[in-house]
Design brief:
By secondary structure, the protein is mainly β. The chain has one domain: monomeric porin ompg (Porin, Beta Barrel). Helix content is 6%, strand content 55%. The protein is built from one helix and 16 strands. A 14-stranded antiparallel beta barrel has the order 1-2-3-4-5-6-7-10-11-12-13-14-15-16.
Length: 309
């Protein structure tokens, strides 16, 4: 009897999911404050030189098949325009996703310190589900068998307002809902442009210079999706000069994040986040996240000394 119940539970869950439960299925990034284009394509407009980031995140570190995210994102400004590209790899359990995106950003300058940017991204997503890796209690199960790989399009959009010491933004990280479903025992790729599936990111932050050495920063990110609880996080940090800093972030009913950053060279900065999850009963779970940002430094003008005779 117990075996039958165990077998029916995943099948029932799968059927319920096919009925259209909406969830927040975007990758979870805690280091966004160090590289805002990770959550808003329009934030690329705030960079004046060739920039980018290489990042990786492992959630629920001690659980096999837990979410893993890694990727690279680059930006090339062209006056009031900028172009960019990103390559991401996401995986959870038997599902994986590779995403290759290109970006375009246009910036409007209200003054030397106040700007409004619009960003649009688009590209292809390679989705793969390998149900052959699922182990069931009764051996072969048609509900969990086979594998499928599909290529689907996707787009994102964002608006970003920024000045020298504060910023505000809103973005839609994914405009096309892509998934692989089981249709009468056959795995099929499915895409739909349905506003009900859209998730919205609302974010903002500011920098407050305490004195010549220390700067206090605060930032927040709110994720809103239909028929799901609002997810909100708030982070604060203290930065010493532009050399190193650290802080703490709280995420609604989810986890506490401790993070720090250090300037390696004029071009590179290394950032690390330690996640401590408190919403899973009976287990203490952690996560780790690292991001290496780079920003091409401005060339200093050559100093030519006049020889004396």
């Amino acid at each position: 009897m117990n075996r039958i119940k165990i077998r029916l539970i995943p099948a029932a869950l799968s059927l319920v999911m096919l009925q259209g439960i909406h969830c927040q299925d975007q990758p979870d990034v805690g280091n966004y404050m160090f590289f805002l284009p990770l959550v808003n394509p329009a934030a690329s407009g705030s960079y004046n030189d060739f920039s980018g980031a290489v990042f990786a995140r492992k959630q629920w570190f001690s659980i096999d098949g837990s979410p893993l995210l890694c990727g690279v994102h680059i930006i090339q400004p062209l006056g009031n325009n900028s172009i960019g590209a990103s390559l991401n790899q996401e995986s959870i359990g038997v599902h994986s996703k590779q995403k290759l995106f290109g970006y375009y950003t246009y910036k409007i300058n209200f003054s030397k310190s106040h700007h409004l940017a619009f960003g649009l991204g688009g590209g292809g997503i390679l989705l793969k589900s390998n149900y052959d890796k699922v182990k069931t209690t009764d051996g072969a199960d048609n509900m969990f068998a086979g594998s499928k790989t599909v290529v689907r399009p996707d787009f994102n959009f964002g608006i970003f307002y920024f000045s020298n010491n504060y910023h505000l933004g809103v973005s839609i990280p994914s405009m096309i809902h892509n998934t692989i479903v089981n249709n009468d025992g056959e795995l099929e790729g499915y895409s739909s442009l349905v506003v009900n599936y859209w998730q919205y990111y609302l974010h903002g932050g500011f920098d407050l210079k305490i004195n010549k050495e220390y700067t206090f920063s605060a930032a927040s990110l709110t994720k809103v999706a239909l028929n799901t609880p609002v997810d909100f996080d708030l982070n604060v940090q203290l930065q010493y000069l532009n050399l190193f800093g650290g802080g703490i972030s709280y995420r609604t009913k989810s986890d506490v994040i401790f993070f720090g950053n250090v300037k390696i060279t004029d071009m590179f900065r290394l950032c690390y986040c330690y996640h401590s999850y408190f919403n899973i009963k009976g287990r203490y779970l952690t996560g780790h996240e690292v991001i290496l940002t780079f920003n091409k430094p401005k060339l200093k003008p050559a100093v030519i000394q006049t020889p004396r005779f």
